[in-house]
Design brief:
By secondary structure, the protein is α/β, with parallel strands linked by helices. The chain has one domain: Nucleoside phosphorylase domain (Rossmann fold, 3-Layer(aba) Sandwich), CATH 3.40.50.1580. The chain is built from six helices and twelve strands. Strands 1, 2, 3, 4, 5, 6, 7, 8, 9, 10, 11 and 12 form a twelve-stranded mixed beta sheet that branches. Strand 10, helix 4 and strand 11 form a beta-alpha-beta unit. Helix 2 runs parallel beside helix 5. The longest helix is centred in the C-terminal third of the chain and has 22 residues. The mean pLDDT is 88.
Amino acid sequence: MLIRLDDRAADLGAEVGVFGGSGFYEFLDDAVDVEITTPYGAPASKVSVGTMAGRRVAFIARHGDAHQFVAHRVPFRANVWAMASLGVRSIVAPCSVGTLQPELAVGDFVVVDQLVDRTNGRSDTFYDVGSGNSMPGSHGPVHHQPFADPYAESVRRPLIEAGAHVEGLTVHDGGTMVVINGPRFSTRAESQWFSAMGWSVVNMTGYPEAVLAAEAGIPYASVALVTDRDAGVADGTDEHGPVTMEMVMEVVGQNVDTVKQLIEHALPHLPE
């Protein structure tokens, strides 16, 4: 069932937004699809709104229903604007990452608490001076977003605690995610540099999603699934080969249900 946002926005009652990452294209079994138009074009996918664990949830597949948007082409502003239009009061952002530290194993989850932006050329603000596309309620042409702590503790903490309710799951509390532009993976030298800096995981989509949510005033947190050891990370065994999309998607496929379980256990404790 497809509806237009203006027809029943108040009735949808979306409380929590979820952005699905690579391989995570569906989340809600019983949902309506919402057509939303934003000043930045259409979101990456249809917006599905349904109920899970007693909460009304809005879901967008970050890369599109058929993974048609590579990382640097994801319509981040349209995605976040759509969630804001629905009135969500928090956003959970699952994503896949490569590990940069030997103690983080493939299949582990990391609820990151810091971010390093190594992207380029991405539109990363709603406050474009002279664009005519500023967030409603902005005052004046210049806005500098506080961003010292990119992830809201009110969303992080329920995700961490939810890990105790999923059998066999290892969830790490905290870590720094470095976001690269993509669509290529890191060179061995880059990977070794990131690791030497003490950063925890590497990803292609964590920015500007996080800062756009902050500008929209929506508490946001990311839960990262470790899908691979990045190209230059030693793990005490023979040197492993380069990271490929096939190996990433294989681990994602094995953990889609786990991601759903983790979010389902966290939902009742997210901001109301």
